[in-house]
Input
Amino acid sequence: MDFFFAVPLGDLLLFAAFLAALGVVAGFLAGLLGVGGGIVLVPGLSFIFAMMSERLGLEGVDLMHLSVGTSLAVIVPTGLSSALAHYRRGAVDFTLVGGIGAGVLVGVAIATFIARDLSGDTMKMIFATAIVGLAGIMLINPARFKLAEAMPGRPMQALAGLVIGGLSSLIGIGGATLSVPYMSLHNTPMHRAVGTASALGLVIAVPAAIGFMIIGRGADHLPPFSVGYVNFLAWVCIIPISVSIAPLGVRVAHKVSVSKLRKVFAVFMILVALNMWRKILF
Output
């Protein structure tokens, strides 16, 4: 039997196939529903890593840390592509990127430092609790409401950024699910909120992914092609497929009721969270 990185080649190819399938799902849902990849990638990666744990020799690895770190790394190139597209359309407000982004960087640093000492089960609890909140946001659609006629001053923007950056780093998302509602509640036009959120996603994902590489240094039994808690085989398998599949999701979105599908997906997110809680508590 052929071996690669002390792993049977057949097992490595099976691992890559599962990752590619996850890329299809993540890309299609991103195009169809406009949801960030992390919401799909983190539970998907966690499931794949757990399923392949014995074959890849991952016993003792903090799989949730690995899933979150890898998700953040995947967000970087996809987020860059999105941010550039919005920038070309003039939809990125760099004043807001600076105001919110200052807090984001602090939040990312704090969250990464905290994540180093959290157990895998604690990370799962944080993720499960957070996605219930995110599902609630999808169900309520806060874009219908307004808290103020304008964005607050830079100190309050930075405070919001700290929360957005910290939570996003801990659960492996780019933060648009949090930052877009925050900006739209303060009367920012939706196209500008989405464009600005895409740039903020890079401010979150780049330092957070680097942070998870650093805190995972020296971890034993990581899967092949890992740097700390970022697996680059997953990175290579997921990105090109998800990017190529996303336009298909966009085409389907124009033929169906996306608002109803988003509600169905939100309920699915809640079920995923409940299953995580069940496994941890029982």
Notes: The chain has one domain: 8-281. The longest helix spans residues 63-88.
